[in-house]
Amino acid sequence: MKPQFGSWDYVVIAIVLxxxxxxGIYYRFTGxxxxxxxxxxxxxxxMSVGPVAFSLMASFMSAITLLGVSSxxxxxxxxxxxxxxxxxxxxxxxxxLYLPVFFKLQATSAYEYLELxxxxxxxxxxxxxxxxxMTLYMGIVLYAPALVLEALTGISKVTAILSxxxxxxxxxxxxxxxxxxxxxxxxxxxxxxxxxxxxxxxxVDKGSLIEIWKIxxxxxxxxxxxxxxxxxxxxxxxxxLIGGGITFLSLYGVNQTQVQRYLTIKxxxxxxxALWLNWPILTALSLCTSFSGLAIYSRYSExxxxxxxxxxxxxxxxxxxxxETMGNIPGLTGLFVAGIFSASLSTISAAxxxxxxxxxxxxxxxxYFLSTKRxxxxxxxxxxxxxxxxxxxxxxxxxxxxxxFLGGLLQASLTIxxxxxxxxxxxxxxGMFTTVANEPGSVTGLVCGVGxxxxxxxxxxxxxxxxxxxxxxxxxxxxxVNTTSSAASSQPEKxxxxxxxxxxxxxxxxxxxxxxIVGIIVSYAINKFSKKPQRTYDPNLFVPPLAKRxxxxxxxxxxxxxxxxGVSSxxxxxxxxxxxxx
Length: 582
Prior knowledge:
CATH topology of the largest domain: Sodium/glucose cotransporter
CATH class of the largest domain: Mainly Alpha
Largest sheet: 2 strands, antiparallel
Number of domains: 2
CATH architecture of the largest domain: Up-down Bundle
Distance between the termini: 68 Å
Low-confidence stretches: 484-492, 561-582
Mean pLDDT: 82
InterPro entries: Na/Glc_symporter_sf, Na/solute_symporter, Sodium:Solute_Symporter_SSF
Main location: membrane
Strand order of the largest sheet: 1-2
Radius of gyration: 25 Å
CATH superfamily of the largest domain: Sodium/glucose cotransporter
Transmembrane segments: 6-27, 48-69, 81-103, 124-148, 154-173, 185-204, 236-254, 275-297, 335-360, 381-403, 409-433, 440-458, 504-526
Helix content: 55-70%
GO molecular function, one term: symporter activity
Number of helices: 23
Number of strands: 2
GO biological process, one term: sodium ion transport
């Protein structure tokens, strides 16, 4: 049985897409009408804390996250929710160490920092890595929910991809960052509505939230006290706090998408407030989505839809539950699907705007100056930025359609997206936290970090789900399941290296550690034997505690090679240009 959408469901989705488009149109014809790159990419730096906080959450809570977190808790239990504590523990690190450096720099591209601290090669390596991972991720974010919704609702994959992709590209291109931020707020509310619809129905169906928890407990899905320090344990307090914290820092500390949102606020203090406010919003949606997985389990605890062949994968559980239980309520299924679409819209719009910023700042402007020896005019930069945003939207659609041919590479692409974050965090950390690091050492560290993390992730051992039952399928679905064919095969388990049995949460940890270790060793060796002239730096390129110490010792500009060599301040020749850098 494949439930179809009703007319009211289509009406709800159409209204959601129309509102998102209308927001883009509104900001195209109000204010400065998106005539400058400052307004188009940074919303004129006059956004308030609330919308930015919601946007910070929505930028990486994609449809994959909503579908994946609910199926994670259904399949493996609720231990995963401990990761929300790591977000709180690492928020002050991002807010008071990394964020002040970017705020003082006030550069549209976060990777401009790397050129000032290291050089053009480091900036280009980082921005290219970001561009590749976000382009692939956009297509996957758009394709994954479309695939699920086609299988379960009758909405064709082509229709879903084109509807979300075109609407998203439209309002992002014409409305700029202001449209992206405001639609993120609207879409965040729909994401909460989608998840709440699952929880509320299960609450009414089972009589209480306690009953849902009891059923989950009987299925061994409520264990929260796994403190095993063994890194091969998939989810424990150690892996979730350490690995989750590094993932959070890679996203909220140095990622272009988030840094660009911080800079839409005028002052540092309010930007830090937005980051702090993001934590409870992010945690609330994460916890609700996690509990929705238990709510779904409360219905299917005696007849798993995957094993009984009602659906193909666990990622289809949430949409299947909504249609199977609430499909007869006019408009409610449409509201849920609108929430899933909104999760994709918010993530893709964030990526489009950030990729446009990277392209104009890191590629177009440097190439234009190199060829003409003149700066690109403001009008030309604004027009080209909008065109680039439109082009990336087209690329996003193309990748989404091509994703159906990727097969196993789909999971590999998602894995690469995760493992690039740790090494990039390591690259920024080398620049901000150390005075030893130089460009050759740091870039070498980045390459080694990405290579090692990818090797670990690609060869990793697949997880083993908790047991499920099919004994109640005849009662629930009026079908008899062949228990023999449904049973797992007893093939011998493949032998994995220890490193490939380590939890996937440590991929980013490996990435940052290898980047830091290799970066420092190579940099120290080069500093010790190199005859190259010294470079002068502004102390503001370092985290505030280190910057303060360096400023007290060396003044407003410093020779890093001199610090490493221990040369006295009397022998330093200070050079400084108009921006404080030379």
